[in-house]
Design a protein that fits this description.
Strand content: under 5%
CATH superfamily of the largest domain: MFS general substrate transporter like domains
Number of strands: 0
Subcellular location: Membrane
Order of helices and strands: HHHHHHHHHHHHHHHH
Pfam families: MFS_1
Number of helices: 16
Helix content: over 70%
CATH architecture of the largest domain: Up-down Bundle
CATH topology of the largest domain: Growth Hormone, Chain: A
CATH class of the largest domain: Mainly Alpha
Membrane topology: Multi-pass membrane protein
Protein name: MFS transporter
Distance between the termini: 33 Å
Number of domains: 2
Keywords: Membrane, Transmembrane, Transmembrane helix
């Protein structure tokens, strides 16, 4: 039947979901790039500017779980349309005021609104993509996320130099409104409701969806009682420790510790982002192939995640000790590419574990990621200050992150999280059964 399927699901993911995630990263990065210009023009203090920059991340973290639950209850179509409209309006409104309070308020609302993007995207992906293809689907989402830093910094800098910082916010805000409108008209919460889908593809998607419980009230409360819920959050916190190095300190490290010029840093700092962008596509294809080959969610997720954690940590530590700048950049690219492999598996596992509660699961995971985005840079800065060595800070971050590999021994993504309510001990290692058999086994465990 596969040859009769029109692949609308991939058009939905690649042309609707991923672009919204991409424009979200443009909006998120714009203020960081424009901050020096805005601070000088408006006469803001360094403390005021730092508050404007950081309030976004606090609002983004706080909104994760409520946004995930909203996506489950009301559907990604309504939630993502409403929130993308709101955050785009905040981008348009930002240049209209000149006070600290105005900019602070705009960033506060922007962060809260954008907290719905990822959880809504994960819920949409779960509903549209069969379980056997979800790793590839998550790779497309992550590609949109990682493409942002590659494009945003040079595009924002060029726009500011050519047209001024106001044009950045007006342009990105207008783009967000346009993509939000396209999302509303092009997306449906269930494949069967889409006017352009074929019956064959509806049946194909439905056949690849494992049975799941209806999302009931009290999902978060019940999840909080599951120790694997906490383990999954902590492992993501450890993963983002490494990723936060690339998002915050990499340019500074290359200039201060490696002596690169501003121009050279701009080129070299972009290469790890290119590496992770490519890596998520490879990881998605590989993970889905492994799932088809082994017929085991456990074997398709856990070894890949554990290997990615270890390779990323070792490569980061090795980069801190290398002498040649070419070797340093090569190891940093390898480290970040390995993070990409783990990211693909993590977001596939949120759907494996959460099923009907994938929105809550993704929101919870992103909360830990947001906390790590604060803790990671602060920890590295503290270690560098105490030891006067960037290498020591990178080794500490890498060593802590490597512990995430051990936590994956306890994640068991093959077993839905709330299946613990009725199930007994964890099942023995899966055999090489077909994917349909694996899904059936998981349902029988879930139902006791």
């Amino acid at each position: 039947m596969l040859h009769t399927v029109n692949h609308l699901r991939w058009k939905i993911v690649a042309l609707l979901v991923a672009p919204l995630t991409f424009v979200m990263t443009l909006d998120r990065t714009a203020m960081a790039v424009a901050a020096p210009t805005i601070q000088n023009e408006l006469g803001l203090s360094i403390v005021e500017m730092s508050m404007i920059l950081t309030i976004y991340f606090w609002a983004y973290a706080i909104g994760q779980i409520p946004a995930g639950r909203a996506a489950e209850r009301f559907g990604s179509r309504k939630v993502l349309f409403g929130t993308s409209t709101l955050w785009s309006l905040m981008m348009l409104a930002t240049p209209l005021g000149t006070s600290f309070a105005w900019l602070f308020g705009c960033r506060l609302v922007l962060g809260g609104a954008q907290s719905a993007d990822w959880s809504s995207s994960v819920v949409a992906l779960k509903r549209w993509v069969p379980a056997s293809e979800r790793a590839k689907g998550n790779a497309l989402l992550l590609a949109g996320l990682y493409l942002g830093p590659i494009v945003s910094a040079p595009l924002t800098a060029w726009t500011i130099a050519r047209f001024g910082w106001h044009a950045v916010f007006f342009g990105f805000g207008a783009l967000g409104l346009l993509l939000g409108a396209i999302w509303w008209f092009g997306y449906r919460d269930t494949p069967a409701a889409h006017p352009l889908i074929t019956k064959a593809e509806v049946e194909y998607i439905a056949a690849g969806q494992p049975p799941e419980r209806v999302a009931a009230r009290g999902a978060l409360r019940r999840c909080l009682k599951q120790w694997r819920f906490w383990v999954f959050g902590v492992q993501y916190f450890l993963l983002v420790l490494i990723q936060s190095f690339y998002t915050t300190w990499l340019p500074t490290y290359l200039m201060r510790a490696r002596g690169l010029s501003l121009k050279a840093m701009g080129v070299y700092a972009s290469l790890p982002w290119v590496a992770v962008f490519v890596a998520v596509f490879v990881a998605g294809a590989f993970s889905d192939w492994l799932l088809r080959k082994t017929g085991s969610v456990y074997r398709a997720r856990t070894p890949v995640a554990m290997t990615g954690f270890v390779v990323s940590a070792l490569a980061l530590a090795a980069a801190s000790r290398a002498d040649s700048i070419a070797v340093v950049i090569g190891l940093l690219c390898l480290s970040f590419a390995a993070v990409g492999f783990v990211q693909v598996v993590v977001w596939s596992a949120t759907q494996d574990l959460g099923r009907a509660f994938a929105g809550v699961m993704s929101g919870w995971t992103n909360v830990w990621g947001a906390l790590s985005n604060v803790a990671g840079p602060m920890t590295l800065a503290l270690v560098v200050k105490v030891t006067h060595s960037w290498g020591s800070g990178m080794i500490v971050i890498g060593a802590a992150a490597a512990c995430g590999a051990l936590l994956w021994l306890f994640v068991h993504p093959e077993r839905p999280l709330l299946g613990d309510d009725a199930a007994g001990p964890l099942p023995p290692a899966e055999t090489g059964a077909a994917p349909e058999s694996v899904d059936t086994g998981e349902v029988s465990e879930q139902n006791g």
